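Dear colleagues,

I hope this message finds you well. In preparation for our joint manuscript, I am sending the Penicillin-binding, 1A family protein (Schleiferilactobacillus perolens DSM 12744) sequence together with its predicted structure, so that both groups work from identical material. I would be grateful if you could confirm receipt.
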Amino acid sequence: MFIRRFNHRYQVIRWLIVLFLTVSLGASAFFTYKAKTADVENLKTNLKTVTQIYDRNNEKAGTITNKGTFVELNDISPQVRNAVISTEDRSFYSNPGFDVKGLARAGVSYVIHRGQITGGGSTITQQLAKNTLLTQKQTFVRKFQEIFLAVEITRHYTKDDILTMYLNNAYFGNGVWGVEDASQRYFGKHAKDLDASEGAALAAILRSPSFYNPVDHLDNSISRRNLILGLMVDNGKLTQDQANAAKAEKLTLVNNYQQSDEYRYPYYFDAVLDEAYNRYGIKEEDILNKGYKIYTTLNQTVQTQMQDSFKDDSVFPANAADGTEVQAASVAVDPNTGGILGVVGGRGKHVFRGFNRATQIRRQPGSTMKPLAIYTPAIEEGYHPDSMVEDKLQSYGKNKYTPHNVDEQYAGEVPMYEALAQSKNAAAVWLLNKIGVSKGVSSVERFGIDVPKSDQNLAFGIGGVTKGVSPLQMARAYSAFANGGKLPDTHFITKIVDATGAVVVDNTQTSAKQIMTQKTVNDMTSMMLAVFSSGTGASAKPYGYTVAGKTGSTEGENSWGYGTKDQWIVGYTPDITVATWVGFDNTDANHFLKGLSEQGVAPIFKLEMSNILPNTKQTPFKVADAAQEDQANNNGGTGTNNSGDSDWLNDFQSNVQKGIDSIKDKASEWYNDVKGFFN
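The corresponding structure tokens are as follows:
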């Protein structure tokens, strides 16, 4: 009674009806607008085109597409068409693009599954719209978009055209798209030659490509094939006798499918897709369907050499006891332009747009952080490659942080270049403590690597950071040493041109930021040359070539045994920078790198550089190796003047310079000690 009076007074039901109609009208207007502005008119043309990738020399390197070989409807067996229509959309030739009964099923599913559409209810036209113009996320809103797009597609194309586009764009499992390639993959024949049994088997795959394809699940395939043959009888496409004969037919599998080699650089092309989307806002479905031309910084020779190196299992550590494969990633950068020349994002089977370790992992960098966090700012504070630094086991701060050298050997005092080359943790932390953690943090951030507040302590200088870094980040940072102190903007794409010829992305004019002086670069490179001549990178040095850079590793738990979690090498010449990481995806007591801190990564880095460097300009370094230069000075040099006066003068000048350097070093130490007291 109360409800009736309340409704009579306030006209609630009438207002609810008005509100419902208003919302419906608004939603219809919105979805109509979305459908009208979608690129429906060029849908068939787009399905026939592919996006082409070009390298740094504007030569075609491959294609990015999820399409198979496109064939017209008269080249597709009627048995395939009838099987698909019978199981996917019986009213296909009569409906306006959607099916009311299907929508009712979708509505029930929406209620049962609390706002999620779990599948079903879509006509062939709706599925075409979803596969070509929408994302795969199943929601009620997307379902409405599907319907309006299906109506728009039906307005522009005949039913035969729609069926042709659908069958050419459908996924049939095992990396195969389109009915023609699926016919070759499973039955070794053209789509036009398939019989009723084979046509029903292909239609069966559409329900779940991973579950019903006959290669991986023959019993499942036969079971659903027989169901579809029964549906074809119900739909008047086969007689019962024809269906029984088809059910009795054995599925003979023949693989004549020749996979295209157009996606020959998978991790590089994946990264190009990611950059197009993340940096320039171009949707994946547009990249796959709209026939762009994408110009990149790819060096096909470098990329091929890197991929070939990763195929050589002998240069990687052994698998774990349970068979888990040691993973790795590598990236090569042109330090002068920032153009990424080559990328390998992992070992084993590649997954389309899967995890790319070269660009996406975040792992502790170990000692590869030292040149960025400690030695560069130390040079800028007045230290020199031959300045003496303390190499002692000692503790710092209230928490008694005590860095250890890997070999537990301490020289007491060593030249700075030797501390870097031999990767002495004790000396590095001592030096960072002298110059101040804040200077180290500022230096690392100049190189493009963020250091969270929680990591800003002495441990970060030797790689103790929680967030970690990627090989691409490290390659970019070290490129500044190879590029005269300029930090380049690393990138894959230089230009994108659409199917009409319009330039939609222009990244041809790149820039680099000066973050170091040439003197700092020279001193740092001089010290990092010693890493490969006589330091921890000696076993990774490619024969006959000069490389500068740094090795790094992160320690595992003591209870695991002797080994490391991650191993790194970042090396550079004036022409190229390469960063390589080796480790397990998930590290624990049964999955870590056993042995020396550079033992696991050195062979693959050496092989890569040995293959890559012959194809570069081989520009020589303009500075000498600090270790070799110091040794030559200590041995009296290589000059021919052996007079006592000359030796005395050289020794005197050397001693005076060392005395001046020592005074500078002591003054710097006193200053930092006093500053630390007040802080």
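For the figure legend, we might mention the following. The longest strand covers residues 563-572. The CA atoms of residues 542 and 609 lie 6 Å apart.

With kind regards,
E.M.
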